[in-house]
């Protein structure tokens, strides 16, 4: 890796590094205990405004997925020319608390994605701006089988 390339982490504010490594940061309603990601200041379930920051973990299961096969409109900012766009997976990851997180996936091959498969949080580079590599969080299969490697 070229150490001279700077990195713009588009979603670093949504993450924390804990003893278990990288985790997602969300919030939880103090009154009704509903979880939110990204963190929010108020609860749409009970209209409460007492929210606590919480860690949502780094492991979940693939609840559903699709493949983004064409270049999205703004605010997508991958920086590539339309002809250079490469499809990527997008999914919902169900976390242990029950919240489902919409996330980029590290793989886009439909034969390697199965609903219910264990997934874990990673950081992934997805493009370039004029002066930096663009990075975000993503989920990747936790136990890739020989078929899914
Ligand atoms: Zn609430």
Shape: globular
Major sheet characteristics: 5 strands, mixed, barrel
| Count of separate DSSP helical elements | 0
Average pLDDT, rounded to a whole number, is 92
Distance between the termini: 22 Å
Q: pLDDT under 50 segments (min length 5)?
A: none
Question: β content, as a range?
Answer: over 45%
Tell me the count of domains: 1
Structural class: mainly beta
What is the quaternary state of this protein? single chain
Strand order of the largest sheet: 6-7-8-10-9
The number of distinct β-strands equals: 10
Q: Compounds present?
A: zinc ion
Rg from alpha-carbon coordinates: 17 Å
Order of helices and strands: EEEEEEEEEE
Could you characterize what this model shows?
The chain has 149 residues and is mainly beta. It has one domain. The chain is built from no helices and 10 strands. It has strands at residues 6-9, 15-18, 21-29, 35-36, 51-57, 59-68, 88-94, 100-105, 118-128, 132-141. A 5-stranded mixed barrel has the order 6-7-8-10-9. Strands 2, 3, 4 and 5 form a 4-stranded antiparallel beta sheet that branches. A hairpin with a 2-residue loop joins strand 2 and strand 3 (21-29). The two termini are 22 Å apart. The mean pLDDT is 92. Residues 29, 31-32, 34, 43, 45-46, 48 line the site of zinc ion.
